[in-house]
């Protein structure tokens, strides 16, 4: 059933995105430029603060509304990857941050005075096995000293704050491998040369970087939640992340379906629209149904998250199904456009590259299969 408020929200986001068409995004892609104007517009409209409670200056909405925002952004042909972290990092801070931390950071984020865009978890030697990260935060009185390396940390050069996961107890000394991890808010404005950042060239304009910590001092007051329980705390952000990124994939899928349907109806070959051919229309219809099915699973996961669910079953399945549906729609659109799909002026090839990312990140789809097999179906671990 349609929700009037979410329908209004969708219309408003669509109107904002209309000011940033394919030419804008293609220029940013060509120049590998960060879309500051677009992010500023979203910030001014309050959308990036949608999850922040009203008492701190935010919109006080839930993940379900955040899903609408990101889905509509991507359906417009834009790329939410430029700013989505400010939404999903809220999960960790809102659920596990202290009142003092929320008062210290959230009003500035909501007002657009601070950007929280960096989520530093992944490391070169740990990959998807988060429990094996090596970045270490050593407690020294009221300060933690951080040394280590992170990789594929996006938007760190456009952020004032970073959510960081680090070990505070060596792995051999913990009873469970998920223990001994802690979460911190790092103020990058004070980091100086203790944090070094290097860009990673990728197939999409995603501002991915590797980050090196060399004796970075982080106040103990910036630790979120309990020391050693960071893995559980960070999952609040990761579950929100997977639901929200599923929404981006759903938006991508609808973008491809919209574009392919319109093109197939207008493009004539042999004196007839190519959309009259079942070989053209059936793959588009097939992809559309997959996108709708993924959206249903996403909606359920979002409802459960907003109700306080902490398990990762729904978020993982939503991310898996949505990324696959978007990729199917991307290929249907590319086939429909033919050679013109490769031309940058149409936007299909750019979105094609962007849609492929979520098949492998922020969690590889094979790990989602493992999660469902083990934690939903009760089968033995495969690794």
In short:
This protein has 383 residues and is α+β, with helices and mostly antiparallel strands.
Average pLDDT, all residues:
96
Summed up, the helix count is: 12
| Total DSSP E strands | 10
Beta-strand residue percentage: 15-25%
Overall tally of domains: 3
Structure write-up:
This protein has 383 residues and is an alpha+beta fold. The protein has 3 domains: 4-111, Butyryl-Coa Dehydrogenase, subunit A, domain 1 (Orthogonal Bundle), CATH 1.10.540.10; 116-228, Butyryl-CoA Dehydrogenase, subunit A, domain 2 (Beta Barrel), CATH 2.40.110; 232-376, Up-down Bundle (Butyryl-CoA Dehydrogenase, subunit A, domain 3), CATH 1.20.140. It has 12 helices and 10 strands. It has helices at 4-17, 22-31, 36-45, 63-75, 85-88, 90-96, 99-111, 230-266, 278-306, 313-337, 348-356, 365-376, and strands spanning 116-120, 136-140, 143-154, 161-167, 181-187, 195-199, 208-219, 223-224, 268-269, 272-273. The strands form 3 sheets. The chain has a 4-stranded mixed sheet with strand order 1-4-5-8. The protein has a 4-stranded antiparallel sheet with strand order 2-3-7-6, with no helix packed on it. Strands 9-10 form a two-stranded antiparallel ribbon. Helix 4 (63-75) runs parallel beside helix 8 and helix 10 (313-337) runs antiparallel to helix 11. The radius of gyration is 21 Å and the shape is globular. It starts with a helix and ends in a 7-residue tail after the last helix.
